[in-house]
Amino acid sequence: xxxxxxxxEFLSTPWAIExxxxxxxxxxxxxxxxxxxxxMDDETTDSxxxxxxxxxxxxxxxxxxxxxxxxxxxxGTIMQRANMMNDVCGGxxxxxxxxxxxxxxxxxxxxxxxxxxxxxxxxxxxxxxLADEITAAKAKKPVVxxxxxxxxxxxxxxxxxxxxxxxxxxxxxxxIGVWQAHEDWSKAMEEAGVKTTLISAGKFKTEGNPYQPLDxxxxxxxxxxxxxxxxxxxxAVAKGRGVPIDSVRNGMGQGRVLGADAAxxxxxxxxxxxxxxxxxxxxxxxxxxxxxxxVAQAQREAAIHEAESGL
Length: 311
Hints:
Blueprint: H1 2-12, E1 15-17, H2 19-33, H3 53-63, E2 69-75, E3 78-79, H4 84-89, E4 92-93, H5 94-106, E5 112-119, E6 121-123, H6 127-137, E7 143-152, H7 154-159, E8 164-167, E9 172-174, H8 186-191, H9 216-241, H10 245-250, E10 257-259, H11 260-265, E11 271-272, H12 275-310
Parallel strand pairs: 2-5, 3-4, 5-7, 7-8, 7-9, 8-11
Antiparallel strand pairs: 1-6, 9-10
């Protein structure tokens, strides 16, 4: 049953993810469906999903040296909730990122937040909402993003919401686009002697199913969904990067990922830097604010002392 549920979810989801990564996932699902690959219940312990999210978070924060900068890892395939796709690809849920973001905002010892991104993108579900939450967060504390080394598609969508976005020298960003897969299994099932009868209510309830070829009407509807998400994606990038929407649609790789120098030239990032260099810059940016706070506190204490002396 797990296989069927995962295949259904895969086919019904519009994806903001690199084409190559989605193709790999589609191949794995096809192999599972035909019995060429072991069931997920028999996965080895080397599966990406077995590397716990908490362990990755602790490792990222350790690299930052702890303290005033909270590092939030955005690794692997992005999904709205932790589920079977996370088990396959070793991903991150938007809920996890949102929870850590809120923790960092509520923590008075945290002065800035770093999104450590290494993701090919993922499902479009929950991404726009999380990007809005990141936008709201940066009004309270600096939120910086780094493509370390990949921020593609949905991951780039999130990165654009940060106050600043950097890419490592060997990194890549972009893949601005949305797509959805449809697989026609009808011939393969016919050859296997399997005939599927769909029983449904609702005119379009079964459209786009994998048991028959995709008809033009269903394809047009799927295309309209992709177009809607693409519009939201490009608007978010334009707003986050401070450029006209035409610059996003007609430049910035047009669905391709770009290397560091090309990304700078297209204004997709604010600069090229390593993880450690970004941390160093963030610490330096926080120091003046820290000094100002100390000066203000000293002035308040002096005023209180002067008032008390005059009593």
